Amino acid sequence: MFKSPTIVLDQKKIKKKFPEARVIVLDDSFNTFQHVANCLLAIVPGMSEEKAWDLTIKVDKTGSAEVWKGNLEQAELYHEQLVSEGLTMAPLE
């Protein structure tokens, strides 16, 4: 009797995720707190006013803040939109 070969699937290949990226706003000397917070609210999905202000303060105090993390294609869109509003951005990570 012919027995078909057993196929073993590589779990690492099956669970391969889309590349992820981090969107990071950098501190600068020309954007106001209000402008940065407004941009985050308008562009980053799921951003609350409180979180936008918390992140804006973090940018000012530490020099940068991760404002979004997720798939690369969406990260590129948010990064581009924030740059177009004049925010200083780190390269996508």
Would you kindly provide a written description of the structure presented here, covering whatever features stand out?
The protein is built from 4 helices and 2 strands. The protein has 93 residues and is an alpha+beta fold. α2 (33-43) crosses α3. The chain is elongated, with a radius of gyration of 20 Å.
Keywords:
2 strands; 93 residues; alpha+beta
Q: Would you tell me the overall average pLDDT?
A: 90
Helix content: 40-55%
Low-confidence blocks of residues: none
- The shape, in one word, is elongated
Number of helices: 4
In order across it, which strands form the biggest sheet? 1-2
SSE run: HEHHEH
- The count of β-strands is 2
What kind of oligomer do you see? Answer: single chain
Query: Which radius of gyration do the C-alpha atoms yield?
Result: 20 Å
How much of the sequence lies in strands comes to 15-25%
Question: For the terminal residues, how far apart are their CA atoms?
Answer: 55 Å
Largest sheet: 2 strands, antiparallel
The structural class is alpha+beta
Provide a brief overview of the structure:
With about 90 residues, the chain is an alpha+beta fold.
